Amino acid sequence: MTIITSTPPADPYSIPLAKLDVSNPVLHQQDIVGAYFKRLRQEDPVHYCAESAYGPYWSLTKYDDILFADSNHKIFSSFRAIVIDDVLVKGGSSGGVALDSFIAQDPPKHDEQRKAVSPAVAPANLLRLEKTIRARAAKLLDELPVNEEFDWVDKVSVELTSMMLATLVDVPLEDRRKLTRWSNFRTGVPGDGLVKSWEERTEVLLECGAYFQKLWEERINKPLGSDLISMMAHTPATRDAPHNETLSNILTLIVGGNDTTRNSMSGSVLALHRHPQEWAKLKANPALVETMVPEIIRWQTPVVYMGRRAMEDVELRGKTIRKGEKVAMWYLSGNRDEDAIERPEDFVIDRKHPRQHLSFGFGIHRCVGNRLAELQLRILWEEILKRPFKRIEVLAEPKRLYSNVLRGITYMPVKIHA
Questions:
Q1: Burial (0-12, 13-18, 19+ Cβ within 10 Å), 140
Q2: Are the C-beta atoms of 216 and 242 separated by less than 8 Å?
Q3: What kind of fold does domain 12-417 have according to CATH?
Q4: Against a cut of 0.85, is the pTM above it?
Q5: What is the pLDDT of residues 53-79, one digit of tens each?
Q6: Under a CB-based contact definition with an 8 Å cutoff, are residues 315 and 342 in contact?
Q7: Lowest CB count within 10 Å: 58, 102, 131, 190, which one?
Q8: Highest mean pLDDT among 181-195, 222-236, 250-264, 315-329
Q9: Does residue 298 contact residue 360 with C-beta atoms inside 8 Å?
């Protein structure tokens, strides 16, 4: 895969429709992809891109079409197809850690392996975790500087999610930043500002593998615990899986428990900064946190898309997607679809139907940790509202991740006004 460094034009209408390539990571890093999605929704919602850095692929940009594809796993397969980047699927230019986790599988394998980890985020376990999450959020917020500039991403979003992740896999809190680093390398590619080469990426991920292999060997010989590693080690569907598959599953859980929620935490501050009327509404009625949380997840859309591969010829809006062709379901575009969501560009904390979004996916692949993500966001904002914060001001445009998969915010300077 070639790293793209040149910035495409902000105006998508300056490019022939057939040449529109919404997979270009620079569009996402510069946060200008929205206009491209809007043109596709209006003119060519089932769009074929013949040439891209990842080869040819189809784009689904309308809410209903994405919902259809995501809910029909027999037609649209996930097997080694959850991203359109074939190099990333294989783990790098020379192998590495391939995308062989349960989310890149179809039934029955997908269902069996998913069941192994789902108890960790079941309602009973979330109830047990709530007190811990709240205590950590309260302590962290009380220690934040007031009337001083600091990076919200590092001090709040990364810190809270990495602590939660350390709890889920039951590792020492002092190792939490290792989990963040491994997550970043799992989703990163050479030239993105973090990863220098495929060899470095493989080396870092194998370091992660060695760390968790040691934990695996410890926990497989102990009684079943409530952490993710113990659950996988004691479930036949995952216990006997090949090492590379096990590592891919662990990395998937790390990314799912880390990147998505941390970017929603950062995005929530940005959203309220850009929509001060919603901040005033929230301060006046803190109970609106309940409907604000799913609106945060819709507005931010932390996972930009998921890929699939057509298992048969299928017709959508007069276009024929051929068997074997790659398909990108652009959740970010679907969450901005004017025909499905009223005022989709706006952040509205009291929407009538706040859970009408695509961010968690649908069907058998719906995000297994969706309730945990919502719980963390709810607690964070409940605790913020308990404190004498007049507002949280974003001091400059946030820096964004070089990625078309994750809508990531890497740096965001803020100032809390007391």
A1: middle
A2: no
A3: Cytochrome p450 (1.10.630)
A4: yes
A5: 999 999 999 999 999 999 999 999 999
A6: no
A7: 131
A8: 315-329
A9: no
